[in-house]
């Protein structure tokens, strides 16, 4: 009985955490979030790899949804300038010559 309860609790916990197909691949819910907010998938993937590491830490799908929304808003505010938008996403403001943006850019260009 105790093992059944633990198994059910574990299954419920895992249901809210997306599985990653590969080290640099986004889970399906992240792809859906990026697409639904009109965010370029390669840019979003690079940003998430910078944010979550590679291999990525497990995070709930709600994280990807919120991240895609914030990135889309940043892109809109920066008139599509992806690197200013990434700086705004990461820092809450534009920082010229930001090493964090440079890391995202390197990941993006390596795709």
Question: Which features characterize this protein?
Answer:
111 residues; 6 helices; 67% helix; signal; DUF3718 domain-containing protein; disordered N terminus; globular
Summarize it.
The protein is mostly helical and 111 residues long. The chain has helices at 2-15, 28-36, 41-52, 61-77, 82-91, 99-110.
Could you outline the blueprint of secondary structure elements for this entry?
Blueprint: H1 2-15, H2 28-36, H3 41-52, H4 61-77, H5 82-91, H6 99-110
| Rg on CA atoms, Å | 16 Å
What's the count of strands? 0
**Which residue ranges are poorly predicted, with pLDDT under 50 across at least 5 consecutive positions?**
2-23
- Main sheet characteristics: none
Beta strand %: under 5%
Query: Which whole number gives the mean pLDDT?
Result: 84
User: Helix segment count?
Assistant: 6
| Outline | globular
Q: Give the N-to-C terminal Cα separation.
A: 48 Å
Protein name: DUF3718 domain-containing protein
Keywords: Signal
């Amino acid at each position: 009985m105790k093992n059944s309860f633990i198994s059910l609790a574990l299954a419920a916990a895992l249901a809210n955490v997306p599985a990653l197909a590969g080290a640099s691949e986004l889970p399906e819910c992240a792809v859906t979030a990026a697409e639904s907010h009109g965010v370029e998938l390669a840019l979003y993937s690079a940003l998430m790899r910078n944010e979550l590491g590679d291999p990525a830490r497990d995070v709930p799908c709600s994280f990807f949804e919120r991240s895609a929304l914030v990135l889309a808003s940043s892109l809109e505010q920066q008139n599509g300038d992806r690197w200013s938008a990434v700086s705004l996403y990461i820092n809450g403001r534009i920082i010229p010559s930001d090493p964090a943006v440079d890391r995202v850019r390197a990941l993006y260009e390596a795709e």
